[in-house]
Amino acid sequence: MINKKVNNVREALQGIEDGMTIMLGGFGLCGIPENSIAELVQKGTTDLTCISNNAGVDDFGLGLLLHKRQIKKMISSYVGENVEFERQMLSGELDVELTPQGTLAEKCRAAQAGIPAFFTPAGYGTEVAEGKETREFNGKMHVMELAFKADFSIVKAWKGDEAGNLIFKGTARNFNSCMAGAGKITIAEVEELLHAGSLDPNEIHIPGILVQRIFQGEKFEKRIEQRTTRKRE
User: Fold this and answer.
1) Would you say the pTM of this structure is higher than 0.85?
2) Backbone angles phi, psi at 202, to 5 degrees
3) How far apart are the C-alpha atoms of 100 and 122, rounded to whole Å?
């Protein structure tokens, strides 16, 4: 069995260079590859095109890369709670391609499956459809969307083994699941890295064939983006 384990995040991110396109899993701050983002900040890699559901918050997640002006273009579904993201977009400092959330997920999944394009009704008749091929199916108009092309895909999982098999926990599965295998090289950072064969095959969400590098992360903060509570009765 092929061993995909690398020693640390620095080794995992070898080959990521200025100007590349990178997918990053997570939804808000849930299930984001914290160690990998911190390493990209440390490396000072610039002119990046980042594909992610959103860009974290001002001082965490992809917001750290935005503050360092390391991201040239964001392909996202919404701006979210990131004030700096909003400021850079409105000022024209950052190129932003807003994409319907379902379309964003499917563009990842299509790349993962090797499907070059697909048709969706989402966005027809809006700016999203400008310049794109449209076609009618069953009496309804659809827009053709191309699958993403990314140099690297970086995902975060709960558990993984040295063969690259991954298990996600709860809603942290989100975009991590469809981004694994969607880039030319997929890097997985995990909370717990086990020997190959340690995971129950029936519980594996992503098979190791979709992962090229895997490492055990450390000191995960797992911040909560919006904490909502109610008074005790």
Assistant:
1) yes
2) -75, -15
3) 7
